[in-house]
């Protein structure tokens, strides 16, 4: 029979067990201490990269004029909302402060910097080591976007707070912090506010009903009201708040059409790779229940917002912003998870791959400004601020050469003590010689909706006291027409002001003694067909045109979700000259003076000073992929009375145009066979249609002889070691030599990584005086002025005139 008994360890065994336990505890503590030390080192490195010492008054991708406006008008009687609107708001000077705002801006930046570090450290101390580490690594990898575009750092801080709330680490304190941050970002940049509020909404949608106590409800309401309350503190006006929100929505909604540029094929592939990696990881995490649906929704929405920022206005600078911030968003997705070892390994590997691809995309397109960017090579940037007075003095005078080149300096004597507005960009006084009055959108390029165009025109007329002068300069952005961009503003300028002085390529305007009163009388309508020329009514006085093209349902969805593809306006003048401009087609809903529309600064000066148009616009058409998703509407033409403008006679004799140019007359040769240098390049399209082939009459492109056609492409010298763009390009058709319009081709410059090829594009209009019915060949010739060299394109394009 056995009896129950308890085994008592011997004394020696007990001491051995205690020794092993003590040793394992010390090992764990050592590991924990080493991991904490490693995290502190990584966090310190990230903190140095994000150290808010960026004080350049030039934002990457922005003009100095914008930085001046954001820093200057906060101290004037002009209020954002009723008096001006922009992509940035009243606190928009914080990302790029000028010396007068440097103290306040740095205090705000340092405060946010400390909040960000506090949130990351608190996440680590709560035991979420993987989450805090991956977020810090994401910030380090994406540091350029946070250093230059500070509003993205505010958005990143809001996302980190939301991650902590999703992980259950904070609740009410997180809501209080979100209310403060969203209220502030409302005054910095409206799109960042929309991003933040949408993410808070997605978070709140997933909160269970039993957790919706009165405190949570009150704090959530405070988050949504924080922006409007912050604005009312800045400007206690309900009307001003309404105009601020309406203007900001117009800026955001119109951007998708007005700023749309064709996207480079390489960048499309890059975006597809990044979207696939992030989307696949999110679906994998959802299927494994590693993350909540609202967590994925927050990351997806933020990814969509930054994708639109990067790809609507397809430009290396904005694509770099997308690539950089996308890395951080992937880190936000990973930080929400508490994955098992296998899942952690898979997702970490994907994150590393994603980061490599995204950093490659950013590095290929975004070179940091070495003078402003923190790096081991730049040791003095933050330390200079310790000598505050000297640093501010240096910054205040650093850009004096830039001020000396401004239009305000050019007309310094004439503007002394006056109120002046500068069109289309803002300018600034060197030493407060005159009072700067802003255009409603600060820059005319941003008045790209009918509402913004009309508000800009109203602000010109409603100034109190009235404007004394307007400085007019011809400046184009993205091949847009500076006057057709803002037809109501152009009509207002012409009707109320007249040139007083011309200096170089600018005009100083003064008020007309008696403003012109335009009277629009309907004349006729014409059928709209995309890509089809429409002849303007023949008249010896101004003719206005309007067309209200609105998006289809699919077009509206595409515009809201991504962008509207570019639309271009082709204009043919009496002499046969044809110009193409990218156009925010919405602005044509209001009548625009069309037959007297100047196509250059000299044309503008001649029209304004002499009231005569010798080479009027006689035909107009709209082309571009963006027209595919717009509802057709008729062109409407109006006779405009109330001006003394005389339009040149449009008789058949005038339409016959100038005498024909030939190879012999221009270059003293009889055939292209005498040209030995060969061009490289391609003929992209004829009337926006791809060229099927060369040197084969069977592949001739059909063109209309009465309407004419536009041939586009790009050409460079055939030198493979140092190719260059042509100074002049000509087409030889039926013995006639037609000079081309040189157009920028940033895609060619980027592809060959050669700045000398920026102006390698060309556009040639062939009209009925050159084209003949039947088969005919087109040859291309290039000419470089500095060495007098001629080049020929080795292929012939055949055209079939009908």
Fold and architecture overview:
The chain is α+β, with helices and mostly antiparallel strands. The relative contact order is 0.07. Helix 6 runs parallel beside helix 13 (316-335), helix 7 (172-188) packs parallel to helix 9 and helix 19 runs parallel beside helix 20. It is built from 25 helices and 26 strands. Strands 16, 17, 18, 19, 20, 21, 22, 23, 24, 25 and 26 form an eleven-stranded mixed β-sheet that branches. It is globular and about 110 Å long. It starts with 10 loop residues before the first helix and ends with a strand. The longest helix is centred in the first third of the chain and has 39 residues, at 11-49.
User: From the helix content, strand content and strand pairing, which structural class follows?
Assistant: alpha+beta
**What are the segments in which pLDDT stays under 50 over at least 5 consecutive residues?**
1-6, 57-62, 368-380, 650-659
Tertiary shape: globular
Number of helices: 25
The end-to-end distance, rounded to whole angstroms, is 118 Å
Number of strands: 26
The description of the largest β-sheet is: 11 strands, mixed
Strand content: 15-25%
Structural features:
alpha+beta; 25 helices; globular; eleven-stranded mixed beta sheet; single chain; disordered N terminus
Secondary-structure map with pairings?
Layout: H1 11-49, H2 64-72, H3 102-125, H4 129-141, H5 143-148, H6 150-166, H7 172-188, H8 190-205, H9 214-234, H10 238-258, H11 265-287, H12 293-311, H13 316-335, H14 341-365, H15 380-384, H16 388-398, H17 400-404, H18 407-410, E1 419-423, E2 435-436, H19 450-461, E3 469-473, H20 487-496, E4 497-503, E5 506-511, E6 519-526, E7 534-535, E8 543-546, H21 553-561, E9 568-573, E10 578-582, E11 592-593, H22 601-610, E12 612-613, E13 617-623, E14 635-641, E15 646-647, H23 652-655, H24 663-667, E16 677-686, E17 689-690, E18 701-703, E19 709-717, E20 728-733, E21 736-739, E22 741-743, H25 746-752, E23 761-766, E24 774-784, E25 789-792, E26 797-801
Parallel strand pairs: 1-2, 1-3, 12-15, 16-25, 18-26
Antiparallel strand pairs: 3-5, 4-5, 6-14, 7-13, 8-11, 8-14, 9-10, 9-13, 16-17, 16-19, 19-23, 20-21, 20-24, 22-23, 24-25, 24-26
Helix pairs in contact: 1-3, 1-4, 3-4, 3-6, 4-13, 6-7, 6-8, 6-13, 7-8, 7-9, 8-9, 8-12, 11-12, 11-13, 11-14, 12-13, 13-14, 19-20
């Amino acid at each position: 029979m056995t009896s129950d008994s308890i085994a008592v360890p011997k004394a020696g065994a007990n001491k051995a067990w205690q020794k092993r336990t003590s040793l394992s505890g010390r090992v764990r503590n050592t590991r924990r201490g080493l991991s904490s030390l490693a995290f502190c080192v990584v966090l310190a490195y990230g903190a140095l990269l994000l150290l808010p010492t960026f004080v350049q008054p030039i934002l990457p991708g922005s003009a100095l004029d914008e930085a001046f406006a954001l820093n200057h008008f906060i101290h004037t009687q002009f209020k954002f909302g009723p008096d001006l609107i922009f992509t940035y708001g009243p606190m928009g000077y914080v990302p790029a402060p000028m010396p007068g705002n440097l103290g306040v801006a740095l205090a705000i930046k340092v405060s946010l910097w400390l909040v960000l570090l506090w949130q990351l450290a608190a996440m680590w101390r709560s035991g979420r080591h993987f989450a805090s580490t991956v977020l810090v690594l994401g910030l380090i990898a994406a540091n350029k976007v946070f250093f230059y575009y500070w509003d993205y750092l505010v958005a990143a801080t809001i996302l980190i707070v939301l991650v902590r709330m999703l992980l259950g680490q904070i609740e009410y304190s997180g809501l209080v912090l979100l209310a403060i941050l969203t209220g502030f970002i409302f005054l910095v940049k409206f799109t960042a506010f929309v991003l933040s509020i949408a993410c808070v909404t997605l978070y709140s949608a997933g909160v269970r009903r039993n957790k919706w106590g009165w405190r949570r409800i009150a704090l959530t309401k405070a988050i949504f009201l924080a922006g409007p309350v912050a604005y009312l503190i800045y400007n206690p006006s309900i009307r001003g708040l309404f105009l601020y929100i309406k203007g900001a929505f117009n800026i955001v909604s119109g951007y998708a059409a007005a700023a749309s540029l064709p996207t480079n094929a390489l960048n499309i592939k890059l975006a597809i790779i990044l979207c696939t990696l992030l989307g696949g990881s999110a679906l994998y995490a959802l299927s494994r229940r590693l993350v909540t649906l609202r967590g994925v929704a927050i990351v997806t929405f933020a990814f969509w917002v930054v994708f639109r920022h990067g790809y609507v206005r397809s430009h290396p600078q904005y694509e770099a912003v997308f690539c950089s911030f996308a890395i951080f968003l992937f880190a936000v997705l990973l930080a929400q998870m508490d994955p098992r070892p296998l899942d952690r390994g898979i997702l970490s590997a994907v994150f590393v791959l994603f980061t490599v691809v995204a950093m490659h995309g950013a590095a290929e397109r975004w070179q940091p400004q070495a003078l402003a960017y923190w790096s081991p090579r730049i040791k003095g940037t933050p330390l200079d601020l310790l000598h505050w007075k000297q640093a501010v003095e240096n910054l205040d005078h650093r850009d004096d050469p830039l001020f000396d080149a401004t239009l305000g300096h050019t007309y310094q004597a004439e503007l002394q003590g006056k109120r002046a507005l500068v069109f289309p960009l803002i300018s600034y006084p060197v030493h407060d010689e005159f009072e700067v009055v802003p255009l409603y959108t600060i820059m005319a390029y941003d008045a790209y909706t009918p509402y913004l165009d009309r508000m800009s025109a109203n602000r010109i007329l409603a100034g109190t006291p009235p404007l004394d002068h307007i400085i007019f300069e011809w400046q184009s952005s993205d091949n847009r027409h500076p006057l057709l961009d803002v037809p109501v503003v152009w009509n207002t300028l012409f009707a109320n002001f007249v040139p007083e002085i011309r200096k170089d390529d600018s005009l100083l305007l003064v008020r007309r003694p008696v403003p012109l009163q335009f009277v629009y009388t309907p004349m006729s309508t014409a059928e709209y067909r995309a890509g089809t020329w429409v002849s303007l009514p023949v008249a010896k006085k101004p003719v206005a045109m309007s067309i209200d093209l609105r998006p289809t349902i699919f077009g509206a969805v595409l515009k809201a979700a991504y962008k509207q593809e570019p639309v271009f306006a082709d204009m043919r003048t009496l002499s046969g000259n044809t110009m193409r401009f990218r156009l925010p087609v919405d602005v044509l809903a209001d009548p625009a003076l069309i037959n007297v529309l100047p196509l250059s600064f000299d044309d503008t000066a001649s029209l304004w000073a002499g009231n005569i148009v010798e080479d009027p616009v006689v035909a107009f058409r709209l082309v571009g992929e963006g027209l595919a998703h717009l509802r057709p509407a008729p062109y409407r033409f109006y006779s405009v009375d109330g001006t003394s403008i005389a339009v040149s006679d449009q008789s058949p004799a005038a339409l016959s145009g100038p005498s024909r140019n030939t190879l012999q007359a221009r270059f003293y040769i009889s055939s292209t066979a005498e040209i030995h240098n060969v061009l490289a390049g391609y003929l992209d399209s004829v009337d926006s249609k791809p060229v099927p082939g060369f040197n084969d009459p069977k592949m001739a492109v059909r063109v209309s002889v009465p309407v004419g056609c536009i041939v586009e492409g790009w050409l460079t010298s055939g030198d493979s070691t140092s190719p260059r763009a042509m100074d002049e390009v000509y087409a030889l058709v039926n013995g006639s030599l037609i000079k081309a319009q040189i157009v920028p081709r940033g895609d060619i410059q980027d592809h060959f990584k050669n700045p000398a090829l920026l102006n390698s594009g060309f556009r040639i209009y062939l009209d009925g005086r050159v084209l003949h019915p039947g088969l005919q060949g087109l040859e291309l010739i290039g000419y470089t002025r500095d060495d007098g060299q001629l080049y020929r394109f080795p292929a012939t394009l055949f055209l079939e005139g009908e």
